[in-house]
Amino acid sequence: MKDNGSRSKAPGASTPAVTTGDSQPAASPRVPKPLVRIRGLTYRRGSLVVFEDLDLDIQRGAVTAVMGPSGTGKTTLLKLITGQLRPDAGSIEVDGLNIQGLDKPQLFKLRRRMGMLFQSNALLTDLSVFDNVAYPLREHTDLSPSMLRKVVLLKLEAVGLRGARDLMPSALSGGMARRAALARAIALDPMMILYDEPFTGQDPISMGVLIALIRHLNDAAGLTSIVVSHDVRETASIADYLYVISQGRIIAQGSPAEVEADDSEWVRQFMGGLPDGPVHFHYPGPPLAQDLLRRSAA
Ligand SMILES: Nc1ncnc2c1ncn2[C@@H]1O[C@H](COP(=O)(O)OP(=O)(O)OP(=O)(O)O)[C@@H](O)[C@H]1O
């Protein structure tokens, strides 16, 4: 996919800036330092180049959505930001720390400040909702039992599940389980929360609840949120800034309105969910008529 040279704006900048899809506008004193700053990121899986020379910023206090077709590297990006994977080239700074330079204890300390709601974030099935949320607090803090109880109840209140605290995970609906996992993800008061496909498998009502919750938690708790999702419209509705990535590069970025207005064919196909376009519905092959008129059996 060639770069479409889409219009873009420095995330968090107060006035639009015109750049190519590859480059970031020069730092301005009015733009606060991003919480996550990625420069020249290259990451390969064997012979597959997942990212090549990628620059990307996540602004503090914002909800940033990362979108793109399946297999384009969205989950990989989150794993690189959390230090679960190491880049082949380039730098990833989180809150001013270059994560490649951190030793394991430093990395674990930093990770405790990042809440993660990954698709596979299963609740511990033998523990009640309360104990699932209490788990990271028991592991990583010295809170007294009465203080711990208060913190857990406040986290559960924030996701609307205080009344469900004694239920076991098997008694929760899919949406409730996702919210309980979210309460656990915010138990340690992270500076940032990373959502990987948070709406997968949710009915429209649960999805609406989760969407509102992501925005509300971000603003009420002063978080920074990164949301990776295929649900273009819903995610765009709560995002301050969008990145659309494809084949290792950013092909569009900006506010939802700016990306919506991007008239490149690729972005139109992706944002509109069109079955055909630059990303083809048909696997490459000869024309249908030619295939049908062929005499051979195969
Ligand atoms: N453990 C692995 N070993 C080899 N290749 C991998 C591995 N994990 C991911 N990949 C490859 O890296 C690329 C990016 O994968 P990734 O899961 O980050 O994409 P994604 O955009 O999150 O996809 P989806 O939207 O379907 O979840 C894909 O081509 C995938 O096949």
Please give a structural write-up.
With 298 residues, this protein is an alpha/beta fold. The chain has two domains: 1-15 and 33-113 and 191-277, P-loop containing nucleotide triphosphate hydrolases (Rossmann fold), CATH 3.40.50.300; 114-173 and 180-189. The chain is built from ten helices and ten strands. It has helices spanning 74-81, 104-111, 129-140, 145-158, 174-185, 204-220, 232-238, 256-260, 265-272, 288-293, and strands at residues 36-45, 48-58, 63-67, 89-94, 97-98, 114-117, 192-196, 224-228, 241-246, 249-254. Mean pLDDT is 85; it is low at 1-10 and 12-27. Adenosine-5'-triphosphate is lined by residues 45, 48, 50, 68, 70-76.
Biggest β-sheet strands, sense, barrel: 6 strands, mixed
Q: What are the distinct ligands in this entry?
A: adenosine-5'-triphosphate
Going by CATH, the homologous superfamily of the largest domain would be P-loop containing nucleotide triphosphate hydrolases
| Count of spatially separate domains | 2
Name the average pLDDT.
Answer: 85
Q: In CATH terms, what is the architecture of the largest domain? A: 3-Layer(aba) Sandwich
Count of runs of 4 or more consecutive helical residues = 10
Can you tell me the overall shape? globular
CATH fold call of the largest domain: Rossmann fold
How far the N terminus sits from the C terminus, by CA atoms, comes to: 32 Å
Strand order of the largest sheet: 6-7-8-3-9-10
Number of strands: 10
Give the CATH level 1 class of the largest domain. Alpha Beta
